[in-house]
Design goal:
The longest helix is centred in the N-terminal third of the chain and has 35 residues. Helices cover about 50% and strands about 15% of the residues. The protein has 15 helices and ten strands. The strands form two sheets. It has an eight-stranded mixed β-sheet, sandwiched between helices. A two-stranded antiparallel ribbon has the order 7-8. With about 375 residues, the chain is of the alpha/beta class. The chain starts with 5 loop residues before the first helix and ends with a helix. α1 packs across α2 and α8 packs antiparallel against α9.
Length: about 375
């Protein structure tokens, strides 16, 4: 039997402790990422992982005073880490806003792993309008939460909100309150996305072309936002509820709204719903030209080369609402010191973890990506 001297034993113990201290933060972040992804996808977290890295979460409703008026907000607070770092999570274009189930699930999961999470409601985005007011609400929400937590906060934006978060982070008035931006399935240039809805393709930075049939949702959002470009002004009030309920996926309410239309308005509504209609495509193309300057102001493109706020980019490979080429363009434009990580993953579609049969390596890459974000969020 080998006997170790007290000195050797002490030295080995110190080495094991040092290795543990070095390895544990890395391991913990990956376990947190694993737990978040399991929770978001509705799968149970293994008991041992849950005991090691998750904790109970309580919620608190708040009101934020912004330049767009008073907006709703919800805090997700880890019960054992009352002074945890802050993360703002921004909902995508959806009428449920901060009550959208996927957002609630994600915010809860992030908070359960030791972050204070704020989900502010973006009135424009909630009403299917991608506009400048949301940029202001995002920036002012980050400022408010930074004041509450005593330090800059991470900002995670889903879909178009991620691009708007980058625009806000590029504004000197808001930049100091941003610890980093994490954009998921987001736009680089709004005009590129609008053109994709017409062509079904987008050129990548390496010169290759991404071809993917667009989801009708994207074009319908543009139509709803600028309905005046698609129907006579006297028909807007009658047709808007039909388009709105279609976007809300409320079939019964859509039928009720349709029943109130005149024969001519019904023809207009049917044509609007068909993004392959020659008439609708022509109007979409004209609207893209008309609103080009407005779309430029809602696009990170053009400001990314000088951005200093750290950025994480994640995109679903099969995203047919905002094509993954948009993330590749952002990655190509950001300075190396600013871009922390970029991943186009087959595990994701647009915002859902429902990619087609991802391999083990693809799943590991996604876990590792989220682990890097968790480490960044916890860093002072």
């Amino acid at each position: 039997m080998i006997r170790l001297s007290k000195r050797t034993s002490a030295l080995l113990a110190a080495c094991f402790l040092l290795v543990g201290l070095v390895v544990w933060p890395f391991s913990r972040a990956h376990l947190q990422a694993f737990a978040v992804l399991r929770l978001v996808s509705g799968q149970p977290v293994p008991w041992i992982v849950s005991k090691m890295v998750t904790e109970p979460v309580r919620t608190q409703e708040v009101r934020l005073t912004t330049s767009a008026g008073s907006v709703r907000g919800r805090l997700y607070l880890p019960e054992r880490h009352l002074d945890a770092p802050g993360l703002v999570v921004l909902h995508g274009v959806h009428h449920l806003g901060i009550d959208e189930p996927r957002l609630v699930s994600f915010a809860t999961a992030m908070a359960s792993c030791g972050l204070r999470v704020l989900t502010p409601e973006l009135p424009g985005i909630k009403d299917y309008h991608v506009d400048r007011s949301s940029v202001q609400v995002i920036g002012e929400s980050a400022r408010w939460f930074a004041e509450q937590t005593g330090g800059s906060v991470g900002v995670l934006g889903l879909s178009f909100s991620g691009g708007l978060a980058l625009v806000a982070a590029g504004d000197p008035a808001y930049q100091p309150d941003f610890k980093f931006v994490f954009a998921v399935g987001s736009q680089d240039a709004m005009d590129h996305v609008a053109t994709y809805y017409l062509t079904g393709q987008e050129v990548r930075p390496d010169g290759t072309t991404e071809r993917l049939t667009p989801h009708e949702y994207g074009a319908l959002v543009l139509e709803y936002e600028h309905l005046e470009d698609f129907v006579p002004v006297e028909d807007e009030e009658a047709i808007r509820p039909v388009l709105r309920e279609h976007l809300y996926e409320d079939k019964s309410a859509e039928r009720l709204a349709e029943a109130k239309l005149s024969a001519g308005q019904k023809v207009e509504a049917v044509e609007l719903m068909d993004s392959n209609s020659a008439t609708t495509r022509s109007k979409l193309a004209a609207a893209n030209v008309k609103h080009a300057e407005e779309m430029e102001g809602l696009s990170p493109h053009g400001m990314l080369r000088t951005m200093t706020t750290p950025v994480y980019l994640l995109h679903g490979q099969a995203d047919n609402i905002i094509p993954a080429a948009e993330t590749l363009w952002m990655a190509s434009e950001l300075p190396r010191t600013t871009l922390q990580e970029a991943l186009v993953s087959p595990v994701l579609s647009h915002l859902d973890l429902d990619g087609a049969k991802p391999g083990v390596w693809d799943q590991w890459r996604l876990v590792h990506f989220f682990a890097l974000v968790m480490r960044a969020a916890e860093r002072n």
